[in-house]
Amino acid sequence: MTWSRALKEATRSGLTIERAKLTPLIAIRGTVGVAIVLGLCLWRGNPALAVSSAFGAFSAGIVTFQRSMRPRPVLALAVAGALAISTFLGYLAAAHVVWFVLLLTGWTLLAGMAWAIGPVSGLVGTQTVAIMLITVTLPTSVLGALEHAALIACGGLVQAALIVLFPVRPWGIQRDTLADALAAEADYARRLRHDPVAPFDPAPLMDARAAATVTPRQARRRPVQLHGPRGLAERVRPVLASLADPVVGAPLEGPERDRARELLGAAATVLDAVAHAVRHASPVRLPPEAVAALEVPASGPMLRGPARRTAYRLISLLADAVELTDEPVEATRPTTEAERGHLLRPSVPRLVPVALRALRREARWSSHVLRHALRVAAVAVAGYLLGAALHFGHGYWAPLASVMVMRPDFAQTYSRGVARFAGTVVGVTLAGALMALAHPGAYVSAALALLCVFLMYLLMRTGFSVTSACIAAYVVFLLGIVGAGWEQTVQERLVLTLVGGVLAMLSYALFPAWETPRLRDRLADWLTTNGRYALAVVDGYARPAERRPRQVRDALLDARAARAAWEATEARAEKEPVRHRGLPLGGAHAASAALATMGRVTMILEAHPPDRDARPSPGAAAFAAALRPALDRAARAVRDGEAMDWGEPHAAWERWSAEGEHEGVAVRATELLLDALDDLAEALPPDP
Question: Region 202-222: what's the mean pLDDT?
Fold first, then answer.
């Protein structure tokens, strides 16, 4: 993609208004938290403290809206503590430019590295830099700095207390995430009726797994409806695919296919009903026709062979799904660590070593997170010094604009930069015009600021340009509390925001961290993890008595993570103004489709495991022995742009096919697996 087209796409993305469900009650609760700390400080007669405390409560409220599975009060307290520390350290160094620049450099570098831990941690780090830049401009002493920091922490405490005292739809994110996974399964079942090899995006199941990972305290309070449906959704997916597949399931035409379509439609109806029950904490309501379709006729489900067994399995799983969710939602039960196992989320203190390991992993020159941290630190310092040299009086707005829009990837940085400037122009213009016409006092300015806070919380997920306009107006009204003239505020805000945005964009042009060169590595990682998943399943046929479901499950999770990493890298690379580096867009899409097919076929193979007392399959063992080194060579070939050779696995499969007639499902599924690998080799010809 050329630079002009990349910038055009980034501009369009930044100004796009996304439709999302509004949460007015949660927005009101967050606004009340800001109003409490702001009102108390104004009542005490200290506008400067009111401004800093309002920033603390406002930032704590923003973080609680993020899509994190951790308890909302914990997020509010964590961000308030980080903001308080940032503010106090900034005050200690604010009197000396050199010391403050050094502190700003180190602190911004750490904040940039926080993206290695996760997006919520990265946002918190960004907020700490912003609060350091803003509050230190309010003159005070060391004791006053402690008071400012304490009030900022108090703002987060107030937000956390309101969440505990006035819960709005508790477990709402977990319910929505699980319901989305079940609804995605229902949509998959409907698509399979018309396309027996329809693809399925595992992202909803990955999100549901993250939502099911709870802290020990959450595990003791989790509703019954959130205990079992995720596991059932995981087990239903391969059964649906196996029933629809024309090779190992129902034939492509005839009465068996009609019965398969009927079962798939009924499964979709049941899964939608279960998703609705989980989302709204209500009983499951099934239409009679769906129940009738899932009843086994006296002559059986009109299917034969593997398809017949799959149909019985599907009916049983759907019955379990309804039974698990159609319970009193008020009931809870304790969940022990042994029972939860790997789905137990570490507490905040135990999260520290996990975070340190994540930071160490990204502490290398090739890491896009480290390059982002260096980039944002350099831009923050340059913006701060440039803003101070312009003598506007509020020079922190230049580095603030840069820090708030910069992200580890090109597309988000440019789209957010455009959207922030456009939103700032609108917000500052409207707020400045209102200040000029009405000349509001401190209390009226505070009320207008709270209105902007409410609108920002309410429209949080509607687009960055809208939220930027609300934040810009909020800052104008908030500074009006301390008597900042609107004329100066508007002029400074517009000019310095433009300066900060330009610095952010130039930084990525001069010191990029492109995703495009990483495409082959991501694709090779996906091939490797898909291969491990396939080998773990085939090994179950080779040695049924030694079959290890845990190993298969871990391999599946690794394959999903690698696929998600590939899709994220591919999406970002498509928007970058760089050449494909040997992996053209068409080849990338074809390779992605081949690996997705490989995963689907392996999933179908996993749905038909042999009994533990079944005899071992020499053909499966020989096929696995030939496939393992071929996968290793293919992964290196993908990285180096060389040709792939699947000759040995094909030869092993032909011998297995000739000798293993009684292993029809395994032989047919592995043939489809080899077809997918051939498609991958065709999609990625060797570099000339």
Answer: 80
**CA-to-CA dists, residue 489 to 151, 386, 431, angstroms:** 25, 17, 10
Closest CA to 576 of 415, 687, 433: 415
Q: How confident is the model at residue 526 (pLDDT cuts 50, 70, 90)?
A: very high
Please check whether residue 580 is in contact with residue 516, taking contact to mean a CB–CB distance below 8 angstroms. Answer: yes
Alpha-carbon distances, residue 309 vs 304, 312, 543 (angstroms): 8, 5, 22
Q: How much is the pLDDT for 293? A: 81
- Where does residue 290 rank: exposed (0-12), middle (13-18), buried (19+ CB within 10 A)? middle
Matching residue, tokens 């910069």: 406
Where are the chain's structural domains? 3-15+24-169+367-510, 172-222+224-330, 516-683
In whole angstroms, what is the distance from residue 124 CA to residue 130 CA? 10
Count of CB atoms situated within 10 Å of the CB of 683:
19
What confidence category does residue 286 fall into, taking pLDDT thresholds of 50, 70 and 90? confident
Amino acid making up residue 203: A
Joined tokens for residue 536: 């773990």
**Selection from 73, 79, 203, 86 nearest residue 135 by Cα:** 86
| Distance of alpha carbon 495 from the chain centroid | 34
User: 361-370, 441-450, 510-519: which has the highest mean pLDDT?
Assistant: 441-450
Looking at residue 342, what is its pLDDT?
43
Biggest CA pair distance of the chain: 90
For residue range 221-276, what is the model confidence (pLDDT) as tens digits? 777 777 777 788 888 888 998 888 888 888 888 888 888 898 999 999 999 998 98
* Whole-number Å distance between alpha carbons of 115 and 117: 5
Q: Which amino acid is at 30?
A: G
Mean pLDDT of all residues in 535-540: 90
Residues 473-495: tens digit of each pLDDT = 888 888 777 765 555 556 677 78
- Name residue 332's beta-bridge partners: 223
- pLDDT-derived band at 675 (thresholds 50, 70, 90) equals very high
Confidence tier at 656 by pLDDT (50, 70, 90):
confident
Identify the helix (H) or strand (E) that includes residue 67.
none
Query: Residue 345: left if φ>0, alpha if ψ -120 to 50, beta else—which one?
Result: beta
CA 161-28-448 angle, to 5 degrees, is 115
Instruction: Report which of 655, 542, 684, 670 is spatially closest to residue 598, judged by C-alpha positions.
Output: 670
Per the rule left: phi > 0, alpha: psi between -120 and 50, beta: everything else, 118 is: left
CA–CA gap between residue 389 and residue 100 (Å, rounded): 15
Fold of 516-683: Methane Monooxygenase Hydroxylase; Chain G, domain 1 (1.20.58)
Reported confidence tier of residue 627, pLDDT bands at 50, 70, 90 = very high
Q: In angstroms, how far is CA 557 from the centroid of its own chain?
A: 16
Q: Where are the alpha helices (DSSP H) in 213-332?
A: 216-221, 229-244, 255-280, 288-293, 305-325
Query: Tokens at residue 285, please?
Result: 């309501």
DSSP state letter for 516: G
Rounded distance, CA 468 to CA 490, Å? Answer: 15
Helix axes 410-438, 397-405, angle to 10 degrees: 140
Find all residues with CB under 8 Å of 516, minimum gap 6, and list them. 573, 576, 578, 579, 580, 581
Say how many Å lie between the first and final Cα of the chain, rounded: 22
